[in-house]
Enoyl-CoA hydratase (Pseudomonas protegens), 249 residues
Amino acid sequence: MTDAIELQREGGLLTLRLNRPDKKNALTRAMYARLADALSEADGDPEINAVLICGSSECFTAGNDIADFLQQPPRDLDSPVFRFMRSLVQCRKPVVAAVAGAAVGIGTTMLLHCDLVYVSRDARLRMPFVNLGLCPEFGSSLILPRLLGQAKAAELLLLGEGFSGEQAAAWGIASAALGDGVATLAKAREAALRFSQLAPEAVQVSKRLMKAPGREQLRQVIEQEGVEFTRRLQSPEAIAALSGFLSKG
Ligand code: COA
């Protein structure tokens, strides 16, 4: 079991902390597996009211571990990354994210499925999938054009442009932008703890109602994106780009 995911229970709150600082919290298969198991257990645990996902006050995550992508690419829906994202998308309990520093690739995509997202103003978010020979994943090709309009979403998904925490809050990707990483983590924890004072069933029914209208379409898009993404991982374009990152040294 990996210790790069720290679990902490505090009353009705489960915190999942990404803790692999030497690699900017890049997510390995073992980390996804741990996140998936912890989220599923939290969802079924009547003592847990909310989940907080965070990194450090310096870095959220550099996204998928690129060496893993080359050595052990996800091949099917049972791979750890799919299990993690499925447990996040389907989680009945509120999920809060705290983002400081870099949030790259799936580090940004996962925020689209969290309920409350707090970011530091100078956080650096980016989905550089095309730049890596890949394509959008886990519903971002559906959610972002709806949220931002086609033209702005295309800057993020077709050019792979980065954006700040301040922009994420202005565009509705984040709930609010805070002054720095420490303030962001504190605000997210405070918000997540508030769910312990609220009626759990009322919160869960409300979340379900908010998510219900687009659920089937989202499921289909995630499936299509998954097929394209896993195919693209084997493409010469992706292999060249991913190998290029690793050989930068
Ligand atoms: N996968 C594997 N290793 C990664 C990684 C990733 N996604 N992101 C960072 N690392 C490693 C670096 O190779 C480096 O390792 P080393 O010290 O053994 O050389 C270490 O983490 C620190 O990264 P570095 O690039 O020096 O930090 P930085 O502060 O200059 O930049 C980022 C941080 C996140 C902006 C930069 O690391 C980056 O762009 N990473 C790639 C992110 C990416 O494309 N992810 C999408 C995958 S779909």
In short: The two ends are 28 Å apart (CA to CA). The longest strand covers residues 5-10.
